[in-house]
Amino acid sequence: MGIEGPFWRAIAVFRVASLVYAAVLLIQAGGYGHPVAGWLVIGVMAAWTVFTAAAYPSARAAWPLLLADLAVTAGCLLSTPLVQDPADASDVAMPITATWVAGPALAWGVARGRRAGAVSAAILSAGDLWLRGSQGINFVSIPVNGAVLLFLAGVVVGHVAQLAREAEELMRRAVQLEAAGRERERLARGIHDSVLQVLALVQRRGAEIGGEAAELGRLAGEQESALRALVQAPAPAGDPAEDGLPDQGGPRRRSLRAPDQGGPRRRPLRVPDEEGPADRVDLRDLLRPYGSARVTVSAPATALFLPAGAAHEVGAAVGAALDNVSRHCAEGTRAWVLAEQDGETVTVSVRDEGPGIPDGRLEQAAADGRMGVARSIRGRIADLGGTVAITSSRTGTEIELSVPADAGRRRRV
């Protein structure tokens, strides 16, 4: 039923209220000249009100229902001479249907737009004016306020309903685009963590070895550039997508992870919308494998529980930060990983004693489409509702990751 549901309910309420009003007018007039006929018409109006209240939402306002609604309402309107005598018509400003006659104009406007509402209102208004003329009322003295209001009601309600449908469609498309963008970000992080890094390594090693390996490295470099362009999405204004410090030349640095452990397995993970207590993971278990002779991992004695998906995303972000240390710092550079919990926030900081990040390097990385920090670190933490703070100087760089302890339970919409 969508956005039209509230409109159909409002029209049903209007029909019921108008039906009660018509019955009250009939009672006040003593049944007009023909009480039996009057109450028979009121009964038809009541039955049709009940039918349309149920039929319009379920039938999605198909043309047969709209035409039947117009025909029944016009028939009740034109039955007025059977209920009112000429004297009644002179004394009473309204036909037997009273304001109930506006129902089809409103329904046509909601179902088919303002033009259809105007057409329906014009047909009913013509019937009303003809009826008054046939009852001997001077055409010049015929009140046209009802016809004008009926026409305006059909046009205005139809216009508002059309605007509501357009707004609903825009909202639906915006939700789809946001979902597609978030999925694109998730896939881009996984690609950066695996394929792009392997291609960059092949390119560098091929250039060092030379010969046929150099051609292989060149092809790998072309594929890396093409893949980066494919998965790159525009970064939000004011949030420079960085990583990606440009390669400095020379052999690729060995990873700072322990030789045989390799840290948590890298793969894109979806954070569940809702997770029960059994799905909580101790973040310390995911950080310890990063420890080695050059990486010191420090964590509290008590567990740092996070929802499973969120914990793996934080662990992967830490791994991406350590990868940057191995890529852009000198061989043997020390790094420290410190995890702690302060109230409802879990914080993990990755600090190194490298040369720091030169001014403007992150902005240049964003322009070049490099996305390690932007997607593998900032993107992951942002999806969890957390924050990333990067502090860099000539004595080293510190990346601080902060996420709520219930991160991942309430996804952004």
Automatic annotation (TrEMBL):
It comes from the Bacteria. Keywords: Kinase, Membrane, Transferase, Transmembrane, Transmembrane helix, Two-component regulatory system. Residues 1-169 form the DUF5931 domain. One of its GO terms (molecular function) is kinase activity. GO terms for biological process: phosphorelay signal transduction system. The chain crosses the membrane at residues 12-30, 36-56, 63-80, 92-111, 139-164. Residues 235-280 are annotated as: Disordered. Residues 316-406 form the Histidine kinase/HSP90-like ATPase domain. Pfam families: DUF5931, HATPase_c. Residues 270-280 have a biased composition (Basic and acidic residues). NCBIfam families: HK_morpho_MacS. This is Histidine kinase. It comes from Planotetraspora kaengkrachanensis.
